[in-house]
Amino acid sequence: LIQLCFLEAAGLDEMLTVAHRDMMLGLRQSTGTGYVVHLPLDLELGAIGDDANLTRGVAVLRRTMEFLLPLQPAGWILHFDFPSSARPGFDCAPAPFVAWADQALAILSRDLPVPPAAIAIENIGWDLTLLAAPLVRHGFSICFDAGHLWRAGFSFDRFVATFGPLISIAHLHGHDGQRDHQALEKLSAAETAAARNWLAGFRGIVVIE
Asked: Which of 89, 139, 163, 166 is 20 to 30 A from 118 (CA-CA)?
């Protein structure tokens, strides 16, 4: 599998071309290569109360997904993120944040062109377990990024216990406490052991970032 990562919505016009898609279709047909699509990272779908931004984000997602559906992606990865100045605290789940997330996830599950179970919401710099209830309620799967989790100081065991069989995709990479997406050798012995033990029973997609 190849992970196709779209960093910014502004760059989609350069990337979503028939020539690019035909090239990837040819690669799939000639070699059996499959794809996982990481949807644009900068949509800030969790911006509380920003209905206009959510509407724009849904439109970007629909455009991207509908264009790439002929590739038959094995999965779709999505950040449900916030403006950096408005990220929720790590120790509690403020009611307005959870209520907005519930509303936004309901719209995404309804308006995107694939079932929500095919869309894996990725943990990033905050505690995704805060949204466990609405994520389960609306049927999304989970992309478990162990490097993000360790860099932010959250519990590996708690994340796995919370989301368990909902995890369909795993991202693995090292970190140095400040920067992530480092070589796997940057992981501590304990982190390496935790990942190895969990992966032994995992049957989803693993992406080395």
From this structure: 89
